[in-house]
Amino acid sequence: MTTQRVLVVTGPTGSGKTTVCRYLLENYQIPQVITHTTRAPRDGEVNNRDYYFETPASFATKHYLEHVTYSGNQYGSSREGLAAAWQTSPLISIVLDTAGAETYVKALGDQAVVIYLEVTQQAALIERLTQRGDATERIQQRVASDEYERDQQLPVGLVGHAQVIVNDDWQQTAVALDALVAKYRVA
Ligand SMILES: Nc1ncnc2c1ncn2[C@@H]1O[C@H](COP(=O)(O)OP(=O)(O)OP(=O)(O)O)[C@@H](O)[C@H]1O
Ligand SMILES: Nc1nc2c(ncn2[C@@H]2O[C@H](COP(=O)(O)O)[C@@H](O)[C@H]2O)c(=O)[nH]1
């Protein structure tokens, strides 16, 4: 039987996690698990595609494999979401903060293939958030959060479990992703 795996894409805010999952979907038809959040949608984000956007009350009614608070908002991923994505493909992806990635490794073992993205210059991260259209006060709130600081380094619990990709140059990132997919994708 084909092993079901999930590519867990993690790293600091603005490091390119969502961009990586979009690339995996567009180039390899690897579906992304949609997660739940109480954060307000950004311009261009669509409910049921980018996130399940929830109120605090509706967020509390779901069954989560893990859930976190990140910069004042709640985020969570459900077992049902994973199962639904695995129905469509044995190789799927999900975007998580590093706390969520650690939980996935504990819960799923080798089924969780962790990709930790980093960007060499922290100023480049902030610049990318600005270019994405994030409001200045939102960026400041995020940069001041404990979660922002924590996600700047690969957590000890992921050492030996994560493949680190430096996403300074997109072409190099794409080459690294192509190699990773070749290793895990079933022909
Ligand atoms: N290698 C790169 N070079 C330049 N810009 C990039 C690169 N990779 C991604 N970006 C851009 O950086 C911005 C942030 O990327 P993305 O939204 O994928 O980050 P993220 O890690 O998902 O962020 P967050 O955790 O805040 O949701 C986007 O505008 C994206 O187009
Ligand atoms: N542990 C989890 N982290 C999640 C989940 N969904 C998204 N995220 C992470 O939250 C931050 C902020 O996301 P943003 O879209 O507001 O920029 C980022 O690190 C995401 O990877 C989840 O279900 N669980």
UniProtKB/TrEMBL annotation:
InterPro entries reported in the protein's UniProt record: GK/Ca_channel_bsu (IPR008145), Guanylate_kin-like_dom (IPR008144), P-loop_NTPase (IPR027417)
Bilayer-crossing regions: none
Record's catalysed reaction(s): GMP + ATP = GDP + ADP
Molecular function GO labels: kinase activity
Signal peptide, first to last residue: none
Guanylate kinase-like domain: residues covered: 4-182
Keyword Transferase recorded: yes
Superkingdom to which the source organism belongs: Bacteria
Pfam families: Guanylate_kin
The entry's keywords: Kinase, Transferase
SMART domains (UniProt xref): GuKc (SM00072)
Role, per record: Essential for recycling GMP and indirectly, cGMP.
Recorded family membership: Belongs to the guanylate kinase family.
Family matches, as PANTHER family: GUANYLATE KINASE (PTHR23117:SF13), GUANYLATE KINASE-RELATED (PTHR23117)
Protein name: Guanylate kinase
Organism, as annotated: Lactiplantibacillus daowaiensis
